[in-house]
From TrEMBL:
Gene3D superfamilies: 3.40.47.10
Pfam short name (any one): ACP_syn_III_C
Record-level Gene Ontology MF annotations: 3-oxoacyl-[acyl-carrier-protein] synthase activity
Domain of life: Bacteria
Keywords: Acyltransferase, Cytoplasm, Fatty acid biosynthesis, Fatty acid metabolism, Lipid biosynthesis, Lipid metabolism, Transferase
UniProt organism field: Microbacterium hominis
Keyword Calcium: no
Pathway assigned to this chain's UniProt record: Lipid metabolism
GO BP: fatty acid biosynthetic process; secondary metabolite biosynthetic process
Family: Belongs to the thiolase-like superfamily. FabH family.
InterPro entries tied to this protein: ACP_syn_III_C (IPR013747), ACP_syn_III_N (IPR013751), FabH (IPR004655), Thiolase-like (IPR016039)
Keyword Cytoplasm appears in the UniProt entry: yes
Name of the protein described by the UniProt record: Ketoacyl-ACP synthase III
Amino acid sequence: MTDAPTRPALVQSTGPAHTRIYAYGAARGENAVPNDDLVGPIDSSDEWIRQRTGIVTRVRADAATTAIDLASDAAAEAVATAGIDPALIDAVIVATISNPKQTPSVSAIVADRIGANPAAAYDLNAACAGFAYGVAQADALIRAGSAHYAVVVGAEKLSDIVDPTDRSISFLLGDGAGAAVVGPSDFPGIGPTVWGSDGSKAEAVGMNHTLVEFRDGQSPWPTLRQEGPTVFRWAVWEMVKVARQALEVAGVQASDLAAFVPHQANMRIIDEFAKQLKLPETVVIGRDIETTGNTSAASIPLATHRLLVEHPELSGGLALQIGFGAGLVFGAQVVVLP
Ligand SMILES: CC(C)(COP(=O)(O)OP(=O)(O)OC[C@H]1O[C@@H](n2cnc3c(N)ncnc32)[C@H](O)[C@@H]1OP(=O)(O)O)[C@@H](O)C(=O)NCCC(=O)NCCS
């Protein structure tokens, strides 16, 4: 055994014991697109889409509006509602799969636009679980002393990566962004995250081609597609277990919840969750999919924002949120609503 080299002890940071969500912000695409506008090229009908998915209209953004614009608007609202000085935000995390530029990140531009420059900023690719992943990271960064406040955004302009003739997923998708400000708390406001992945099912949902194939003229513009029934079964059987675990590790029961906000993938999946989790009727369920569609990383914060607008009495109550999607990946946690 050799003696340890003589060196000064490092400082390692620690932060507050608890965190919570201070406020939400939301931005939806400017246009409500009804089912009838999309059914022609996929030989479908308004009735089929309503019955199989619960979607009546989805929101889609103007051509000139970007995921960065949507993210900035949602983040700015969340920061204004939280009432914090943007200079105290040290981390901006944007979950997205639809920024058409690989680099620079959406997050650095959003940080600058909301007055948080020079906050650490990075994008996160966890598809429809992206917001739950971002909340997990913000919570951990703050409790580790790496940030005072963090902004988590889910932002998508999915209409840029849909094929109007695709029957598997395109008609489900919408454009929007939802944001949350996370910061220190006197009480536990974000329960432990249950998260994970199953890359053996990577082919179940995702892009149908690479940009290189497109460049080389070997494919059309890459778009999203999925094996719908495979994803549906995985969501209903496996994700209910994840939701139960998130309740268990947070030390609460379904009957303690004020709200349930699952990823807005399909109304039938949401109903099945509610049934299997035996949610009492007092639990308000996020059903934003009906008029917003599936906005991937944005869907949970958009649905939560709407719930808080429509049911202000939920403030201070517990919400279970669960995201799941391409990867496959999943993430769930119980949070105290601001
Ligand atoms: C995509 C989805 C709505 C399809 O619904 P489904 O009930 O599974 O439909 P199926 O694929 O089993 O097809 C059932 C029938 O509808 C038809 N069909 C499929 N897509 C259709 C469409 N878009 N319009 C009209 N008919 C359609 C099929 O051809 C089939 O017809 P058949 O019975 O005559 O053979 C559903 O699978 C789903 O929501 N999956 C999960 C989505 C999800 O969670 N994604 C997460 C990642 S974002």
